[in-house]
Automatic annotation (TrEMBL), chains A, B:
GO terms for molecular function: DNA binding. Transmembrane segments: none annotated. It comes from Isoptericola halotolerans. This is DNA-binding LacI/PurR family transcriptional regulator. It comes from the Bacteria. Residues 316-350 are annotated as: Disordered.
Amino acid sequence: MPKAPTSADVAREAGVSQSTVSYVMSGKRPISEKTRRRVAEAIDRLTYEPHAGARALAGHRTSTIAVVMPLRQASSAERLMIFVEEFTYAARRRDHDVLLVTADEGAAGLRRVAGRSLCDAIVVMEVGSHDARVETARGLAVPVVFVGIPDDGEGLDCLDFDFEGAGEVIVSELAGLGHRTVDVIGWGEDVHAQGFNYIPRFTAGAERAARRSDVRLRWHRASTGEDVRRAVDNARAASGVPALAVVTAIPETLHALSERRLRPGRDVDVVALTTGFVSEADGLTNVSTRPRDVSRRVMERVFGLIDGDLATRGGADLVPASLTRGGSTRSRPADRPAGPADNHREKEAS
Amino acid sequence: MPKAPTSADVAREAGVSQSTVSYVMSGKRPISEKTRRRVAEAIDRLTYEPHAGARALAGHRTSTIAVVMPLRQASSAERLMIFVEEFTYAARRRDHDVLLVTADEGAAGLRRVAGRSLCDAIVVMEVGSHDARVETARGLAVPVVFVGIPDDGEGLDCLDFDFEGAGEVIVSELAGLGHRTVDVIGWGEDVHAQGFNYIPRFTAGAERAARRSDVRLRWHRASTGEDVRRAVDNARAASGVPALAVVTAIPETLHALSERRLRPGRDVDVVALTTGFVSEADGLTNVSTRPRDVSRRVMERVFGLIDGDLATRGGADLVPASLTRGGSTRSRPADRPAGPADNHREKEAS
DNA sequence: CCCGATCGTCGATGCGCATCGATGATCCGG
DNA sequence: CCGGATCATCGATGCGCATCGACGATCGGG
């Protein structure tokens, strides 16, 4: 195992001083073309890579973004993977890396990675409505971006999909189809127990739309396939075509409907809240939570803060909810009395 | 934003020298109980955390494990999350962190994180049968553990679930139920295209068992629900009770069977290769790929290498495949002519 | 009661890099 | 043809920590 070359080795190889090598790499001082080339060649020849620790020590930046993730109790593994993926790629585009931190380190985890100078910024996913990490973040030396809108997040950098708008759009759509009762297949008790902030936000939006449209909502908390089946049976008990707002367990719900010979878009109206994977492909009428858009904007915010763009700092930011019509709802009586399925038209949240 | 305290600050606060603080933290030299307490209190009072970069620079260790993950084309997001979860917890238990690296950086990614001294070890997931990273790993200054068994991995640290054994066990089980033809719902073309090493290994095991038991295998590469349906129809075309080895798309397969009113364990025998999530709960007869066991052993290996346990180094290591009988296969004629369902008995791979 | 052996602590040094001030070289306008 | 400005480069310094050698204090055996 040969010792890794240092910038001093490169300097010797190129016949310049170590500081010149440093300036070639950072571009923070003008360097003649000739010197630049010589240094670049030396770097190649030695396959030099700068020592990250030394860089962090001398340069006061780590080129690392810490991401705090709820690994044990993910509401959706696929959704989480999309976030991780987008975060990592965005980081790499700026020559940064991603450090993984588990949510169960809690506030102490934030203090640790910040205190040890392990990162230049922290992203906290799945923040709760009342979250100890919010307060901790205020006192940290590195910027923190929250995915989610905590109740006491005044002045913090928060960013999320507009779950409240999604609740409104979904219920409004079903109301517009003439339904007076909507059954919501909602997050299970286990997810509720986590206190995720998006649940009350979605609920508030849905309830507001329900009041406005004089619709009754029936909430079902579904964790297992059994829960889903029960909820579906419950929805079917009422007379007429049932209306389902499916917020979780989409495959299970479709399965339950299929078992009962209920065809979405004919015998039942289904609008889903999707993570951007499953159901758009299946042509469901749905509102996507747009994980890619959210994560992209999170990283824009992160690098804005790192770069010190003061314009970037503070406040909550929402990615708007929009509905995509698919085959799981009947044509809207008002819109087009007897037209073909009008896929993929979008309707923004109010 | 107050400047972060350094070990020198702690030393001053405690009335000792900086080096004493360092020895208190590392325990590498005897320290009197009195001094230790004074220093510990000073650390608390200042909420001191050591600077990771400085530590890496002076101590030649980073307390970081790099994990290379195939984010874009995960065969299963859930399976991947389990690995990430186990890796992270194992790392934290040893006061290490996890750095995420995307697989599409390829061999260059390994060189980067090793060259920059970003980590003490690298874990590479989903290694291919012929993988450029294998050769690269040999020249690296940090140990690399591969999850998967590449063809040219001689002497490298490889570790994986025994997919070959799984292929054998699954086919043998179905053969033992009297089947002469087995339909395999296998990984889709997209997964094949990645060249993952586990596919040929599983295939080899299945084929060997098929030859031994004089069974004919029909392979179906299923990416979409449509592919699955076609495969199921194909399996049904033959006379008698069909036999299905389901290696991917388990929910889709179950759905397709349900649509066709084929009840697993009665009208069709189903044995699944599961990722440890879905199907055990559903009581399928299955072989689990044991992601938790695999990742645990990976991290044992990683820290063995970091600690310099020479006993740990080199060679491939397989987590054995075992079958768990569930309700998706009929009782075995030879075993018990007319007994109750014999759940949860295990059968090891040969 | 003295001497060698721990034991506990300190000061000095260097890890590899970024950055600052300084210096020599080159340029241009008057 | 000279002086100030610009350009390219160098040397020195310090970031915060781990580690090594040194040294005073304390202890036990003779």
